[in-house]
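User: Need the bound-state model for NDP:
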Amino acid sequence: MSTSTSSKTVLVTGASSGIGEATARRLASLGHSVLVGARRTDRLTALAEELRADGMSVAHRELDVTSLQSVQAFAAAAVREFGRIDVLVNNAGVMPLSPIADLRVAEWEQMIDVNLRGVLYGIAAVLPQMRQQGGGHIVNVSSVSGHRVDPTAAVYSATKFAVAALSEGLRQESQDIRVTVVSPGFTQSELTHRGGSAEAQGAAREAAAQLAIPASAIADAIAFAVQQPAAVDVNELIVRPTAQG
Ligand code: NDP
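Assistant: Bound-state model below.
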C-alpha cells in the first residue's frame, strides 16, 4: 500500500521548463522515482543528468501529449524502467492568449489538444496499470483560469474548466485512484513565451513580472498532495501570489 513515506514512481508531463521541471526536482528530492517527458529532449537530458548526479532516480523520454501513441509509450517506459506507475502529473500546457475575435483557430485547437486532450490521453495511458496495481494518483495542473474567465483567456479557460469537470468525474468514479486538481495563479515559467497575440501575451508577461511566484511554490503544493496517505485525497488546491487580484 502506498503511504506518505514510500517511494513512488511518478510521471511528469511538460517537465522541460517551469512548473513541470520544478515538480520533477521536488518529487525526486523526496526520494521518488521520476520519469520526465516533453518535446525539448535536450532540456530533459540535462535535467535528468543533473538530478542523477545528485543521486536521484530520474529517467527521461520524448513526449508529445497530443499523440495518444506517444503518451502510451511514455507510460510503458515508466513500467519498463521502474516496474509501476503510482502518480501521473498531467502538467503539460500551452497558453497562447488572444481575443476570440482574432480567430486564431489553430491556437484554439492547440490549447484543446495539449491542455484537454493531452490530459485525457494521460489518464487513458495510466489508468489500466493503476487499476491493476489497486491504486494510483492523478494530479491535473489546471489554473486560476479554471475558476474564472478573463478577456483573451476564453479558450484557455474553457480547457481548464474542462479539466476540472473531468477530474471531478474521475474522482467520483474511482474508489482507489486519488485525483487532485492544482490551480496555479501567476507563476514564473515560459508559459507566455509562445504564441498568442503580441498585446495579450505582453500584458500577461507584464503582470507575471510584477506578481509571479516561483514554480517551486506549485511543486510544493503538488508534493503535499502526493505525500498524503493513500486514503487521503487532496482534491483541489489553488495557489496564487498573495497580491494577485
Ligand atoms: P512552461 O511553458 O514553462 O511549461 C509548459 C510545459 O509543457 C513545457 O515543458 C512544454 O515542453 C510542455 N508542453 C507543451 N506542449 C507539449 C506537448 N504537445 N507535449 C508535451 N509537452 C508539452 O509553462 P508552465 O510551467 O507555466 O506550465 C505548466 C502548466 O501550468 C500548464 O498546464 C499551464 O497551463 C499551467 N499554469 C501555469 C501558470 C503560470 O502562471 N505559469 C498559471 C496557471 C496554470 P516542450 O515545449 O518541451 O514540449
